[in-house]
Design brief:
The complex is a heterodimer. Chain A is built from no helices and 11 strands. By secondary structure, chain A is an all-beta fold. The chains are: A mainly beta, B mainly beta.
């Protein structure tokens, strides 16, 4: 079974530039999550999708962050414009809501460096 | 407001001995708890979980203990192996909502 795929793995940009991250979840997983992980911290939820609906985006900084999950499969997270404080690892995860375990499967993440 | 706390940022254990990783939580609404393991440059991978109706769950070398009255859980690894060296995240969720809150992680080093 293929895991969660994310691209790119690494991205270096200058502040005020836009950046986008892509995620392909595990086939059949209806729930998709985007997390941000700062150095020395645990992952923090940015947004959660159930199918194509964003059911929890309360932690997403909506002035500069946006996300979409077209057709309830792939998802894109965008930052525009990026700030120095956005440097972090952005993790995508997916789960099957009725699996009974709350287990989320994570991708390898995209490490963003904003200069 | 850190609702899930892992107060030990690092832990070193000799191979073959027991590793005990601790986690405390503050939100009484949490009723499902998970441990994730993370190697460098990889995403976290699920290790073991426990629901609030249990006080112990075991899977091979890994056992999670839950003390609801103390709002405390721990992960025991016996015997510890060098391949267990990783960062371990404790996580908690409200089962119905499925939002998972992670702790800050404990870096375990198992010394051969």
């Amino acid at each position: 079974e293929a895991g969660v795929v994310q691209s790119p793995r690494y991205k270096i940009i200058e502040k005020k530039q836009p950046v986008a991250f892509w995620c392909n979840p595990i086939s059949g997983h209806n729930t998709l999550y985007w997390y941000r992980q700062n150095l020395g911290q645990g992952p923090e939820l940015l947004i959660r999708y159930e199918n194509e609906e964003a059911v929890d985006d309360s932690q997403l900084p909506k002035d500069r962050f946006s996300a979409e999950r077209l057709k309830g499969v792939d998802s894109t997270l965008k930052i525009q414009p990026a700030e120095l404080g956005d440097s972090a690892v952005y993790l995508c995860a997916s789960s099957f809501k009725t699996s009974g375990t709350n287990e989320q499967f994570f991708g390898p993440g995209t490490r963003l460096t904003v200069l | 407001d850190q609702q899930v706390k892992q107060n030990s940022p690092s832990l070193s254990v000799q191979e073959g001995r027991i590793s005990i990783l601790n986690c405390d939580y503050t939100n009484s609404m949490f009723d499902y708890f998970l441990w994730y393991k993370k190697y460098p440059a990889e995403g976290p991978t699920f290790l073991i979980s426990i629901s609030s109706i249990k006080d112990k769950n075991e899977d091979g070398r890994f056992t999670v203990f839950l003390n609801k009255s103390a709002k405390h859980l721990s992960l025991h690894i016996v015997p510890s192996q060098p391949g267990d060296s990783a960062v371990y995240f404790c996580a908690a969720s409200d089962w119905g909502y499925q939002k998972v809150t992670f702790g800050t992680g404990t870096k375990l080093q198992v010394i051969p």
